[in-house]
Each structure stands twice: as structure tokens, then as C-alpha cells.
Amino acid sequence: MTSTEPSMTDAQQRRNELQALHRRQVDALDAYDRALEQTSLAQAALTQSVVEAVNVFGGIGMATELLGITAKEARAHVAAHEAAVNQQSDPVAGSVLEAGDG
Questions:
Q1: Are 73 and 43 in contact (CB under 8 A)?
Q2: pTM over 0.85
Q3: Using CA atoms, how far apart are residues 28 and 73, in angstroms rounded to an integer?
Q4: Does any domain span residue 3?
Q5: What is the pLDDT of residues 4-44, one digit of tens each?
Q6: Is position 95 within any domain?
Q7: Full residue range of the structural domain in which residue 55 is found
Q8: Which residue, 19, 46, 47, 102, is most buried by CB atoms nearer than 10 A?
Q9: How many domains does the chain have?
Q10: Sign of CA dihedral 64, 70, 72, 73
Q11: Residue 65 predicted with pLDDT over 60
Q12: What dihedral angle (degrees, nearest 10) is formed by the CA atoms of 90, 91, 92, 95?
């Protein structure tokens, strides 16, 4: 028997290495998806807190001064909040958007 032929154990070892690599790749993609979800939730919470500050402090001017953000950033949060509220209150528009994504 010559040692130049790959043995069954070499093939099995390579298969195991490929399976381990695949598992790591899937784990990396899952971690990325979880991080995106956490980022999305954090962004929504930030938007909600900016909108609340604008309401509590009587306008964008005072809220931006106290929060340390620009008026442009505050308006973007307010607009995002209003868009989310409008989308939730109009289920037909939401279903049309979802149907177009597929």
C-alpha cells in the first residue's frame, strides 16, 4: 500500500473541517442578524426618546440644546417616528409595501 493515496481518515478529516467551517460561517451570519436586530431596536428607542424630549421640552430648539444633537437630527427622528406611526395606522399601506418586497 502506498502513502500517496488519500486514506478514508484523510477524507473524513477534510469533511469534518469543512463542516466546522460551515458551522462557523452560519454562526457568523446569525450573530450579524442578531446585531442588526439589536441595532434596529436601539434606533427605535432612540427615536422614541428624542420625540418624547421634543414633546416634553416644548419643541425641537430646547430639546436639541439639552440632548446635544442638531435640529436636523431631531427632525429626522421626529419624521421617522411619524412615518412609523402612519405605517402602523394604515394596514393597507403596510400590506402593499410588504407585498412589493417579495
A1: no
A2: no
A3: 32
A4: no
A5: 665 679 999 999 999 999 999 999 999 999 999 999 999 99
A6: yes
A7: 8-101
A8: 47
A9: 1
A10: negative
A11: yes
A12: 130
